[in-house]
């Protein structure tokens, strides 16, 4: 694009230009410079190109024999007019008589006088603000202020003595018990406290076992109704399809209840709906992060999907995306809610061995969660021959009233002596 001017000169637009290609217009705050050709200009650009707020920052330095000037395009000293309007500079080529038009930005150059530094740098940097105030009180304070200063220093000496005594006592305890034993005690206490935060709502004063962990707290009436279609698909599975699911590594807890469903319609309908919801929980427990497509292949209703995202995942921001992460604490929460749901599905009794296999966590961890929920651990009844071996492999837990309170100090396993 060109525009004819009076005479033989024409304007030529240079097209798109990058931020770094802009021409520089300087303005000196202390007046005009007579010998501008004796100034040595240097431009410094931000090295942080990933941060959108910092990548365009520039510092312009003009040095001379007598004085130096500094200007920048950010901060309080920068010119706001660069953001309000656009500036252009025309460069005339006398041979072709064409004037190239370039984008430009303004820099306000301020003088920097050598030796004019912050007065605080010449002072003792080791002194705090409190020390400086105390020095002023000692020199110019009233008698009341001086007495208060003396009292505060005496109290400080007493506090230091107390800290030394506490440190000495702590060192003695560490020498007696050992650092590893103390760290183990702290870890166990914190683990129990963290685990209690992820248990289902518990009514310890309930008169019936089914009311301790209420079914409505696990699945609301609206959520239970939304599982009707998915539950009907579960109920329509044939024995051959169930066997195929078992061969493909399906969830053992779900298959156990689908293979032994009650005959009554209401109880049967409740089991199949809970079985579908339990299958989603167990699938979620094996994931590290999930997307909004989770459960769509299984026909998961939107209200159930939102419940899973809201209850069992934590949001994390990575690569400009919001991810739903299944953390280790959320896995413990999934295990606790699975236990509570299985209690309602199995007449207040749950097979811990099947659950730990479906969740892909250790059996000891599942037992720990069951104890935190106050469940009673049950030893399977012994039978004859091979059946005894099969039954001993499975550990069960039941919800009996009153709830069991386990003492953590007595739950530590002791190694058996080898004879």
Can you give the helix content as a percent range? 40-55%
Mean pLDDT over the residues:
78
User: Tally the helices: what do you get?
Assistant: 15
Measured by DSSP, the beta-strand proportion falls in: 15-25%
How many runs of DSSP E, i.e. beta strands?
14
* Major β-sheet profile: 8 strands, mixed
Question: What general outline do the C-alpha atoms trace?
Answer: flat
Structural class: alpha+beta
Head-to-tail CA distance between termini:
99 Å
- Spans of at least 5 consecutive residues whose pLDDT stays below 50 are 117-122, 385-392, 409-419
Order of helices and strands: EEEEEEHEEHHHHHHHHHEHEEHEHHEHE
Q: Radius of gyration from the CA trace?
A: 38 Å
Q: What does this protein structure show overall?
A:
With 419 residues, the chain is of the alpha+beta class. The chain is built from 15 helices and 14 strands. The strands form three sheets. Strands 1, 2, 3, 4, 5, 6, 7 and 8 form an eight-stranded mixed beta sheet that branches. Strand 7 (87-93) and strand 8 form a beta hairpin. Helix 7 crosses helix 10 (265-285), helix 8 packs antiparallel against helix 9 and helix 9 packs antiparallel against helix 10 (265-285). The longest helix is centred in the middle third of the chain and has 35 residues, at 143-177. Mean pLDDT is 78; it is low at 117-122, 385-392 and 409-419.
